[in-house]
Specification:
alpha/beta, 2 domains, 3 helices, Phosphoesterase, Metallo-depent_PP-like
Length: 165
């Protein structure tokens, strides 16, 4: 959220207030799960800042920079901020790994801001990922949203896709 280690800037406070207002306008309450760059988030946000957050359906949301404390059938994480390059064009992507971590599925989300440019996953192996939830990168499928077509494109797992990229 903040990408700050030393202080909370006025710009950060303004952005958090705007986010809170946008959520409030649609009847939602923001929930903040701290990432490895959010050391100042507890100073900027008056509400609770979580290390991980369990949704009503049991999905566990964490940043993904460390092993989660909780158990789940689905872990939603960020941290590595995946992108994929196809035909010379780099796009943000999500990665979906069935049974990828302790028998649970993992959904790794792309970056939501320009602060984190993302890492190209085309040739990455498990050791190349910073998240400990990626133990076998070859089983993760890239998912790319094509806004122009109004659809999400699902690709084969990286292990099968690599030879085509």
């Amino acid at each position: 959220m903040l990408h700050r280690f030393d202080r909370v800037t006025e710009r950060s406070e303004t952005a958090l207030s705007a986010l809170e207002a946008a959520c409030s306008d649609v009847g939602a309450t923001p929930v903040f799960v701290a990432g490895n760059h959010d050391t100042m988030l507890v100073e900027a946000w008056a509400g609770t800042v979580y290390d991980e957050f369990a949704l009503d359906d049991g999905t566990l949301v964490s940043h993904g920079h460390r092993h989660p404390d909780g158990e789940s059938q689905l872990h939603v994480v960020g941290h590595d901020h995946p992108t994929i390059t196809i035909e010379g064009r780099t796009r943000p992507c999500a990665l979906y790994g069935p049974d990828a971590y302790r028998g649970a599925d993992v959904l790794m989300l792309p970056a939501f801001t320009r602060l984190a440019g993302g890492v190209e996953v085309n040739r990455m192996r498990a050791a190349d990922f910073q998240s400990p939830l990626v133990r076998d990168a070859s089983r993760f499928r890239p998912l790319v949203r094509d806004e122009n077509a109004g659809e999400t494109l699902t690709f084969p797992p990286l292990g099968a896709l690599r030879r085509h990229l």
